[in-house]
Specification:
The protein is of the alpha/beta class and 438 residues long. It has 14 helices and 14 strands. The protein has 2 domains: 3-204, Rossmann fold; 215-387, P-loop containing nucleotide triphosphate hydrolases (Rossmann fold), CATH 3.40.50.
Length: 438
Amino acid sequence: MKFPELDLKPEILRALTDMGYQDLTPIQEKTFSPILNGRDLLARAETGSGKTAACGIPLVQMIDPSLNAIQALILVPTRELALQYVEEIDKISRHTDVVPFAIFGGFSTEIQKAKLRDRVHILVATPGRLIDFLYHTTSIDLSCVRTVVLDEADEMLKMGFIEDVDFIMSCLIHEHQTLLFAATMPEEIDRLIRIYLKEPLRVELNKEQVAPQSLAHHFRYTKRHDRLNFLIEYLKREKISQAIIFCNSRHHGEKLMKELEGKFKSVEYIHGGLEQSRRISIFERFRRNEITFMVATDLAGRGLDFSHISHVINYDYPCGLESYTNRTGRTGRMGRSGIALTFVTDQELKTLETMFKMNRIDPVWHGDIPNLQTVSKNNSKGDRKKYFKKPSRPVPQTRTLLNSRNDPIRGKRQEIQRVPLNPSVASISRTGGLSKLQ
């Protein structure tokens, strides 16, 4: 289905055309009508499936701009996701009088108060900052909220925001619509569903498919001390538009950054210990394609959408299946092609086969191919020779064809062996407040 087939306001259709949106994604097709009809909704889809627009477009359609009040409240777990959300809604509503705004920690409450006193229709907030406002100010009135969105609800639970969510929902004593979006559905979410959603429509796309299917999943088996040389060789050899290189700790990221910044011109490092203004500045420069390689901790592994990323590289093996899905989901979004390369050492071999089966991954190996079926739980270290099938041919050096700006690696052909799987640091606003990085 295409967007012009929907009964949307002309101003919204014009904005979607400006954004290059033509076809609805599956999650958008299944959720637009229920949201517009006022149904409560429980939606699960793979990362990069278009969940932000699936929520944002109907909200802009339903807002009454003549009513100077907060009519939609969107709760998100992180500051970065709040900024991304409000940017997306700002683009969707650019030709309307609908005003989105975001509040989050790490920025002056006085400036945010001033904007809230002006005019806001859609409020995006992190739970902690919203509670600060509700406790200590009279700047936020939620009595006109018609729709509440809990986005990345599974991540909010994991980060310990459950009590904050309960408090915020208790402030909404009037009738309203509740939408819950998540990439995964852990058991803890069931309590939220029972308490806050009324006969929700359940939309679970690709329930058995965890890994984004537009991704090619590449792996390199190596000794730990050889990873850096292989990484540098790979970055120089591949035609990469942009890449995120994930490390498991701030210390590992710092060491890798020092090695790469002397060999590549366009490298940055993002982690949770940076000042908020610095973090936002790096993310915005990365979005504008001013940074080619971004070394990152898992801060950048959830929810954030960077359209130009062609590669995700797990320099450190992810800590768990969900982490792998979240990290690699930064590329291959909205049906675009992408490559995820993961370095694997002896320590991780025993978990690989489980990950392949649970994430429906058909692995592509660079270099030697380990025989995972011979790896027992008791052999985390041992003779590497017994882990291998016969050596594979090296990956041929081939040229990458750039077919389009939005799909930089489509058309890439490599004769590589496949192993089949055995059974401003301010919230962004168009009409007031700070909207640029200071």
